[in-house]
Every structure is written in C-alpha cells, then in structure tokens.
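Check these lines:
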Amino acid sequence: MNPRAIDPREGAPHQTLKIPRRPESSSRSGLATICLTQRYTHDMLADRFRVNLFGCFTLPLREPTLVWILWQRDLAQRYRGSYIGWGWTLLTPLLLLCVYVLIFQTVFSPRWSQRDDFVLQLFAGLMIVQIFAEVLSRSPRLIIDQPHLVKKVVFPLPLLGWITSLSALFLGTIYLFFFLSAAALWHGLSWYALVAPLVLWLCLPMLLAAAWLFAALGTFVKDLQQVAGPLITLLSFLGPVFYPISALPSWLGAWVWFNPVTVPIESLRACVLLAQAPNWALLGAYAVVGGVLAAFSGFHFLRVQARFADVL
C-alpha cells in the first residue's frame, strides 16, 4: 500500500505512542498502564508530564491514577515469588513485636524511666526508623534500576520519590496499627492516640527530601548505596530509640533534636503511651523544615535530571 501523500500545508503527521491494554511481563511494560487505552503523541506526553518545582509536590493530585498503579506495582514487586505475598506486610511487624515482648519482657526486662512498657517505647522508635530506612536504602538506585523511564518513555521522574515515600508510609501505617493494638491491650488508649496517624504522615516531607536527594546523587555517585546502611545505624543510635532523651547530658540532648526521627518518635510516645498532646509547635516546625528540605531536594533533582541519560 502506497503511503498517504502529505500536504505541505499540513506538515508531517505526529508519531503516536501506542499503549497496550494488557502489558507484558517485562520491566518496561509495567509503565504501559499509564494511559491504558488512550493514544498520546510524544509532545502530548511531554506537555502532560512537564514538571517544575511546584509540580513536584502536586504530582499525586495531577496523576492519581498513575500514582495508584505504580504504588501497587511497587508493593507487588516487593513480595514477588513469595508464597505469602502481601501477607508479609502483616506478619513482619507482628513477628517483630512478638520477639520484642519475648526478649525484653521476659529475658532482659529493662525499664524506661520508671515505666514498664519498654517494649512499646522501643517499638515506637524502631517503627519510625524503619520508615526512614526504607527510603534511604532504596532511593540511591531509584534511577539506576529503571533506565527505561529515563531513555525510553516520557515520564515524570520526581514521581519515583513519591512512590518510594508512600510505600514506606504504608508499611509504617501497618506497624502503627500493631503498635496501637499492643498499647490498647497493655494499658489502654486515650483520645490523644487519634493524633498518631497524623504524626506518622507528617514524616512525608522529610521522606520526600531524602528520596529526591539520594536518587539524584545516587545516579552519579554509586558509593551512596553503601553509605545508606551506616547512615541508618546512625539515625537509630543518635536518636531516642533505645533510650529517653532525659538520659543524655543537656549539651547532647539538644543536638538529638536535629535527628529527623526524633520529633515523630517523641510525639508518638507522648500521644499513645503518655496520654498527652504532642508538642504542636514542634510538629509544625518539623513539617515546615521538612517542606523546605524537600523543596531544596526537588530543585536539585530537577536541575540534574537532564543528565541522567548520559550516565545510564
């Protein structure tokens, strides 16, 4: 069949990006579900996914379907090939809590400032550390492990930081459910416990800041992946995870508040274990600082993302 003659006044026809309804099992085809049955030209996709600094923060509102699809895919890949699958999201925190009760309640029996709930104090701290560890350990390879998103398709790369952060917070929410359940059985809950989910999700700006910064730097500095492990250990031992802040000297206790896990840990313990209102001014300052750091990281990410294809 002869090709259709092109009228010079019309110009060359746009090439279209065909997206299948049912993607194949390859790693690249998972992104085919972006638009499902629609047909977009390359220019249309470029306009749709063009992101500035403000757009980094509004991506989930602009592309909720894309976020939902990629978030489900991210969680499914975590347990691919396992027999229990998504059941591990429930079993992991439950088994961890049972081990803590067995070891620290019957074997060592340590006390936390004259309280008998050391297990819950410890679980609250490790829960927050686990959320940050999830983001810090995965972010350095966010771009490296998915070069097809950089070279083959038009895709808003800052969205990868959102997916990683939301996945970490989802797992943290499961941990929070078991934490609240154990606290209710241990000594009951007050109305202040309703604030606990808000405290948890106020970590989102800090998580985004870490995800965007480590994803951008990790693309160029491959050693960053090896730095993540020691950094997570520092977050644990330089924060009030295994000890109360009151146990530290005054000069050192002031510096502990600069640890990004300190404010959410202390706020969770206050509203769930101490039946007190969290320090709202401190939580507000934490959210503002997290937003500023996220803006800085997002700006840096947008500046260097044009060079990602050169190093992959």
About this structure: The first helix runs from residue 42 to 48. The beta strands are 16-18, 39-41.
